[in-house]
C-alpha cells in the first residue's frame, strides 16, 4: 500500500501526463465547487419559498446540488480534454481552442433548459456584459468614464426590474418572480401583529 502511494505521489510530482491529470483534477474541482455553491443556495431558497414535506424539500435540495455539481464537473472535463487535444494537435495553445471547447461543452451540458442551467447561464451573461465593457474601456473602444458609473448602473438595473415585475412579471425567471412577490407584494398583506412581524400571510 505504501509503495503504491509512493508511486502515485511520484507520478503526480513528476510533471508527466500533466494534461491528462489536469483533466481529472478539473473534474474533481468542478464537482466540489458545484456542490459547495449550490447546496447552501438550494437550502435557503427551498426552505424560504417552497411548500412540501421535509423529505420533499431535502430531496429537491439534493437533486439541485447533484445537478449543479455533475454539470460543472462534466463541463470542466469536456473543456479541459478538448483544449488539451487541440493543443496537442497543433503543438501550441491558441485562443480559439478555448472558444471551441467551451462552445461544445456549453451546448452539451448547459444547453438543456432547466432551472439550474438557467441560473448559471444568466449569472454568466451578466458577467460577460460587464467584462466586455471593461475590455472596451481597456482597448479604448469605449471612453473611460470621468465619474464612477456604478450609481447609474444600479439605478437603471433596479428601475427596469421593478417595472418588469409590476407590469410584465411573466417575462421574469420564476425564482426571481417568487422572491420579488415575497418582498414587494406579500408585505402588503397582514391581519394582526403576529403575521405582521413573525409570519408572512
From TrEMBL:
Q: Matching InterPro entries, A to Z? A: Pmp4
Q: Which domain of life is it from?
A: Eukaryota
Pfam families according to UniProt: Tim17 (PF02466)
- Which named protein is this? Peroxisomal membrane protein 4-like
Gene name, per UniProt, is LOC100378771
Amino acid at each position: 500500500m505504501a509503495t503504491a502511494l509512493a508511486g502515485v505521489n511520484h507520478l503526480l510530482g513528476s510533471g508527466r501526463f500533466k494534461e491528462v491529470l489536469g483533466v481529472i483534477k478539473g473534474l474533481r474541482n468542478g464537482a466540489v465547487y458545484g456542490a459547495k455553491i449550490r447546496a447552501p443556495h438550494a437550502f435557503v431558497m427551498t426552505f424560504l419559498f417552497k411548500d412540501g414535506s421535509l423529505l420533499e424539500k431535502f430531496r429537491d435540495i439534493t437533486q439541485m446540488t447533484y445537478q449543479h455539481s455533475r454539470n460543472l464537473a462534466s463541463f470542466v472535463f469536456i473543456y479541459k480534454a478538448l483544449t488539451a487535444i487541440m493543443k496537442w494537435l497543433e503543438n501550441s495553445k491558441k485562443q480559439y481552442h478555448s472558444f471551441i471547447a467551451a462552445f461544445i461543452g456549453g451546448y452539451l451540458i448547459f444547453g438543456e433548459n432547466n432551472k439550474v442551467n438557467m441560473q448559471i447561464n444568466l449569472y454568466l451573461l451578466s458577467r460577460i456584459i460587464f467584462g466586455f465593457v471593461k475590455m472596451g474601456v481597456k482597448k479604448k473602444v469605449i471612453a473611460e468614464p470621468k465619474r464612477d458609473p456604478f450609481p447609474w448602473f444600479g439605478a437603471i438595473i433596479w428601475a427596469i426590474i421593478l417595472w418588469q415585475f409590476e407590469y410584465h412579471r411573466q417575462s421574469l425567471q420564476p425564482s426571481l418572480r417568487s422572491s420579488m412577490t415575497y418582498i414587494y407584494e406579500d408585505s402588503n398583506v397582514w391581519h394582526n401583529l403576529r403575521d405582521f412581524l413573525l409570519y408572512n400571510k
